[in-house]
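Our platform keeps sequence and structure together, in a single record for each protein. Such a record has a labelled line for the sequence and another for the backbone structure tokens. The tokens are whole numbers drawn from a learned vocabulary of local backbone shapes. The remainder of this section carries one protein's record, kept here as part of the documentation:
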Amino acid sequence: MAHKGYNEGCLAAHALDLIGDRWALLVIRELMLGPKRFGLIKAGLPGIASNILTQRLADLEANGLVERRPLTPPAPALAYALTEAGHETRPVIEALCRWGVRQPGHDPRKFISPTGLMLSMGVMVRPVETEAEAAFTMGAESFETRLGPQGFTARPSPGAAAPLRFEGSGNALAAAVYGSVPLGAHLAAGRLRLTGDPQAAQRFLDAFSLGPTPAA
């Protein structure tokens, strides 16, 4: 069913006409760090039906927020990617994270996608004086990350070579990043795998917290 819109001249209403449908902003979230094929987008949104995802992608493409582009050879396939206007929604998503963490009822045990975790870490970070690099591998997705005085950045990088490499599900890594249980306990229980110095890895994770929201 086509979105009828709000039929208002309000700029906020106009923005919601473009991204306000259910799942639309989360589809954009999944593409924020780089292009993805349909199946990988779907894996990051397990609650969405395939036909709804197809419709949302079509709507976002029609609204100029998403485009289809060929993957780097040798893969003869198309991926979905954000346009410049699509990328400009990132402050909106980050603002929602900062607002949401202050509201009661958040359950961090619920599913979190790899991209969702990376974006949340970019918001819930306490900048540190010394720069550090780490790779995060969560199933089919891997990211190269950097932590330092300017905060936290992440980008997709399947072959990233970093002194620290964390491997596990998005939820297992979220528990290590934001939970009160030390990294060593997660490693001993087999919930995560680590390549690199455990003490340096714990210091890396200590920069993130779901406590008081860091300054924007």
The chain has a mean pLDDT of 92. The chain is about 40% helix and 15% strand.
